[in-house]
Amino acid sequence: MTTVALPPIPEAATSAPPPRSRRRRLRPSAVVGIVMLAVVIGATALRPVLPGFDPFGQDLSRALLPPFVDPAHPLGTDPLGRDLFSRIALASAVTLGITVAIVCLNAVIGTTVGILAGFFGGRIESALSVLSNTVLAMPVVLLLIAVCAVVPPSAGLTILVVGCTWWVGYARVTRNVAAALRAQDFVVAPRTQGADRFWSLTRHVLPNVWPHTLIIAATDIATIVLIEASLEYLGLGVQPPTPSWGAMIYDGQKYLATDPWLVILPGVAMFLAVGGVQFLSQQFTAEARGAFLRKGARR
User: Fold this and answer.
1) Cβ neighbours of residue 79 under 8 Å, at least 6 residues apart?
2) Rounded to the nearest 5°, which phi and psi values hold at 7?
3) How far apart are CA 218 and CA 208, in angstroms?
């Protein structure tokens, strides 16, 4: 009997395909967003450690210095001789801190209302729906003006008013997700084994709702920054002498014809923050959506 020699099998055919790399690649827009945010956050972080930069110190003899003229004031000074670099950096910390607090409050309230309405349904959903429609019908600016007529305006008041009136978008999305999850087998099955509703909410519904909440929060930060700056422009937020972007633009518009940098520099800082968040949120939204879809496919 003769044996037929088989041709050698190529090594590539016998070896398993290399595993797909799970390293996440940043989009070009995300890189741009990181750079823009790094400029704002870097200036905010460096201001306290740099000597000689006082956002409240006044020197009328050096008032209205243009940018890049005096090394002691790289971005110039305002009409009272205060350093613009330190004031813009402090205003960035104030505005971003207020924005983060508002977004967190919106996420907590909206997610809670949406989960309760979607999971329980019935009268609870009807009552929470009426509450959401009532809050949605309230103009934020007019409501804050009415509140400021009784209580002096402050950062805490801005956080409380905007944080308690801007959560409807979170509630609507999480309500739809919770309503779709309550009939799923992995949510219903524990109930047959004696688990209560609170256990099902915290173990199964909430982990599947939070990715949607984070996506909304990531895209909502830029909107809240603009709303907060608009309220500061109207004098309904942080009060002087604490600087804020909106208040600096309002004060600088009086000198727009002769010293436009008083308006341009805070506007540039706001543009970097809003644009950076928007560019970076695209990357975060894509990653969160992909992770959620992969989790659903595994289930």
Assistant:
1) 63, 64, 251, 255, 262
2) -65, 145
3) 17
What digits encode the pLDDT tens for the residues 30-69?
899 999 999 999 988 888 887 778 899 898 999 999 999 9
DSSP string, 50-103: STT--SS---GGGTTPPTTSBTTBTT-B-TT--BHHHHHHHHHHHHHHHHHHHH
Please give the biggest Cα pair distance in the chain: 109
Mean pLDDT score, 109-137: 90
- Single-letter residue type at 18: P
Residue 254: count other Cβ atoms within 10 Å of its Cβ: 12
* Max avg pLDDT among 45-54, 83-92, 131-140: 83-92
**CA-CA distance, 281 to 285, in Å (whole number)?**
6
Decide: 183 and 261 in contact? Cβ < 8 Å: no
pLDDT in the model for residue 290: 62
167 or 182, higher pLDDT: 167
Amino acid at 157: L
Q: Name the pTM for this structure.
A: 0.83
Distance CA 132, CA 268 (A): 35
**For 255-274, how does the pLDDT look when each residue is reduced to its tens digit (9 = 90+)?**
999 999 999 999 999 999 99
CB 41 within 8 A of CB 280: no
Instruction: Please say whether the structural domain 28-48+65-298 has been given the CATH code 3.40.1080.10.
Output: no
Cα 89 to Cα 43: distance, rounded to the nearest angstrom: 6
Q: Which two tokens mark 58?
A: 């006044």
